[in-house]
Specification:
16% strand; single chain; eleven-stranded mixed sheet; 15 helices; alpha/beta; 545 residues
Length: 545
Amino acid sequence: TAVSTDMKNNRKLNRLCLLKTALTGLAAMGLLTGSLFATPPSHTPPNIIIIMTDDMGFSDIGCYGSEIETPNLDLLAKQGLRFTQFYNEGVCVPTRVSLLTGLHPKQTGNNSNNRNKGISKHSVTLAEAIGPAGYRTYHTGKWMVGDKEKSMWPVGRGFDHSFGCPEGGGVYFAPSAFYKNMGRKPSMRRRIARDREVIYDVETDPPQGWYATDAWTEEGIKFVREAVGMEKPFLWYLAHNAPHWPLKAKPEDIAKYRGKYKVGWDKVRQRRYERLIKLGIFGESSKLSPRGKKIPAWDSLSKAKKDTQDLRMATYAAMVDCVDQNVGKIVKSLKELGVYENTVILFLADNGGDSGGGVTGSNKGKGTCGTAESHALYGECWANTCDTPFRKYKAWLYEGGVAAPLIAHWPKGIPSGLHGSLVTEPTHTIDLMATCVDLSGAKYPETYKGNKIIPMAGKSLRPLFKGKPFSRENPIFFNLSSHRAMRKGKWKLVSARGGPWELYDMRTDRTELNNLAAELPDKVKELSTLYDAWSDQCSVTTTNR
């Protein structure tokens, strides 16, 4: 039987890695001498993998209180750090802009969910910033920050290779299913591309058994093998579209959770809340936010409706479970390639749970929830559960929209004495650019391709990896269409849909149940003045470009 070229290359690469490991070991024992076999210097820049999920709630993984089984992520947390006050931008596109550029989206003029605007030419992406430092840079999965022209795609913004959806998510089993099973012609193509070439679309589906979450991981591992073979450090940005609707998962993963949610959202929320307190992520004085006003009590549902709801949440849980399975594949591959110890893995989510689909969800597709023919959303009822203990959801700037888990794992760089620690300092996706630049030794550019580049807004998280002090000079600002917010120290200022400012003490009221604006008008004035000055400056910067 003929052996494929890929198999031959993989075997060759594995033999080279084993030989390199053996020679390094002999050199360490003094059996070989010479610079060729010298132990790599301690300052060797680490590999960096950023894994981001889509529409995943704060409490949806085990180490953040969930009943969903995520053993691989839980182990990364146990051997690394968990951040308890890490923020995103509350919705898909702005979070991706802030992660990729290290800027607040308002600084780039892209603070809405408009995926067509692309990334400003007055900013650089992670790939453009650290590629010149000798890194191989890769993207797999969802892009969604510019797709009108191929120059906006990942390879047009500095990545060496890419495999994923330029437009966004929606595809799990096949692009055609996203539209054909809805009974209408596609109004927006869901293409899957490798670099600049479209390989699957609504008319050309991937092979039977293809599933996006697995594919994004497996293609990325191939890229990692390339970098290791070239003896270069790598940056891999893995942007899952899971567990974003439509809810679609492999049957065996759904079966694992079927029936577990028939206890109802009220009990699941309460159990998650209790686990969060037991894990130390919240203090015992913290309060669980009330169930959403429109969400019915579980016991008021009929047996048939309970079964429907159980299936929806079981499918969602299966999607999260599959993400975790793929984290396990990544760790296994890093160990096989001999690069596990010096690889930083950062795991986060782009916003809170999505309340789309109405109060109790919907399924407008032709098939049962979870199948390729379905098009199901789990609704506000389960979004409220996924965002435990917070209120509100994706597209809001309350904690339910912008608070996210962040796990940092780096065997070589995080001392064992810190393993399993909780990081309580407020941090944000804008900090990931500063962190990557710091870790890589890259020099952040003042100009790029003839354009003046806006300075980074974030701060490197590296001191936190060592247990050192971390102080943020500037507040964290948020702007999402008509929503505004800021976080400065223990204070959070929020204005929803153009409404009046609300003030919360995040040390005693993380779930934002006690508005102190009327009691502390001077504090509101102080913080809102800072917000207005920042907003005005961003508007000037954006308008003049």
